[in-house]
Design goal:
Structural class: alpha+beta
Oligomer: single chain
Radius of gyration: 18 Å
Strand order of the largest sheet: 1-7-6-4-5
Bound molecules: oxa(dethia)-CoA
Distance between the termini: 19 Å
Shape: globular
Number of strands: 15
Order of helices and strands: EEHHEHEHEHEHEEEEEEHEHHHEE
Largest sheet: 5 strands, mixed
Number of helices: 10
């Protein structure tokens, strides 16, 4: 029997941290106390002009490959979860592949917005378990700063840019213990970027639009239940799980999810305060931070749980 295990993790945040005060200095009508009390966000990072999702993905991937002790040429599948691709086509995964110097691996993008990384990890695990692929790079990368309306304070203070990556490889024992992914397309209006490119022009609205309260309510109902479902399916009790890594959108959603699952606050990895919401990158960035600072140790069980536009949601239970 073949299983998938995590061989390396990596993360990358572009540039210097941008504080709430910096946003005010740039003309956003907001205040630090509101952002901190409603979201927990103090800083975020923005990619410089011309820096794309694949550029951020490249840095995160190099770090994950270095931890795995693997050359990029050895990869046989490259999966990029992103909603801010470099181009309409080709896929950001193939652009990343070229930058990494890999030729021949399968490469494609996966679009599930902020749940993109748990979706991609779950897909990658199935490729490995089928026996068709053995060394897989899974990346979450986004530059949401490009799709924010800086006159909409309800959304522009919430997001940041970044990338996180994981190298998965075939193993005789399971690293990934269980996965669950779901969607409900009837909820696509509460979080979207409704525009598109057509006839040489942007048609419709090219900015992120969100009904924050509707998203909040949905997230707090779905995140604990999909985490529980994934553990139940894997036959693992939540008591055995050392760490919870929820999508990093709002500290209130994160804390609620941890409490509902009976996790202690110190078992919940929280990076939203420093990173903001980096969409598909948020979970692998948080995983990378907690692995590199020594909190997550080999052999421990970790549950990743994400939710995003679509609406999409899912969880991955793994033994690191
Ligand atoms: O990965 C995508 C997932 N996204 C999320 O998970 C986001 C989920 N939603 C949320 O995190 C929260 O709903 C928000 C942080 C977006 C908003 O928090 P809230 O507690 O639901 O605030 P609210 O929408 O009820 O807004 C309350 C007030 C309004 O003022 P009035 O009308 O009550 O006078 C807003 O105008 O807060 C005002 N407001 C702001 N004030 C200062 C909204 N944005 C800001 C701001 N600065 N940036």
């Amino acid at each position: 029997m073949t299983f998938a295990r995590i061989a390396g993790v990596g993360g990358y945040l572009p540039g210097e941290p941008v504080t709430n005060q910096d946003l005010i200095a740039r003309g956003v009508d907001t205040d630090d106390a509101w952002i901190v009390s409603r979201t927990g966000i103090r800083t975020r990072h923005f990619a410089a002009q011309g820096v794309t999702s694949s550029d951020l993905a490249l840095e995160a991937s190099r770090r994950a490959l270095a931890m795995a002790g693997m050359e990029a040429g050895a990869l046989d599948l490259i999966l990029v979860a992103t909603s801010t691709p470099d181009m309409i086509f080709p896929s950001t995964a193939t652009i990343l592949q070229a930058k990494l110097g890999n030729v021949g691996a399968a490469a494609f993008d996966l679009q599930a917005v902020c749940a993109g990384f748990v979706y991609a990890l779950s897909v990658a695990e199935k490729f490995i378990r089928s026996g068709s692929h053995k060394k897989v790079l899974v990346v979450g990368a986004d530059v949401f700063s490009r799709i924010l309306d800086w006159n909409d304070r309800n959304t522009c203070v919430l997001f940041g840019d970044g990338a996180g990556a994981v190298v998965l490889e075939a193993a005789e024992y399971p690293g990934i213990l269980g996965t669950a992914i779901h969607a409900d397309g009837s909820k696509n209006a509460i979080l979207n970027v409704p525009g598109q490119v057509s006839g040489g022009k942007v048609t419709g609205d090219p900015f992120l639009r969100m009904d924050g309260q509707a998203v909040f309510k949905f997230a707090v109902s779905i995140l604990p239940s999909v985490a529980q479902q994934t553990c139940d399916t894997a036959g693992v009790s939540l008591d055995e799980v050392s760490w919870l890594i929820p999508h990093q959108a709002n500290v209130r959603i994160i804390e609620f999810t941890g409490k509902k699952l009976g996790m202690k606050p110190e078992q919940v990895i929280v990076t939203v305060g420093e990173h903001g919401n980096t969409s598909a990158a948020s979970i692998p960035l948080a995983l990378d931070a907690a692995v590199r600072d020594g909190r997550i140790q080999h052999g421990q069980k970790v549950i990743l749980v994400g939710v995003g536009g679509g609406f999409t949601w899912g969880a991955v239970l793994l033994r690191f």
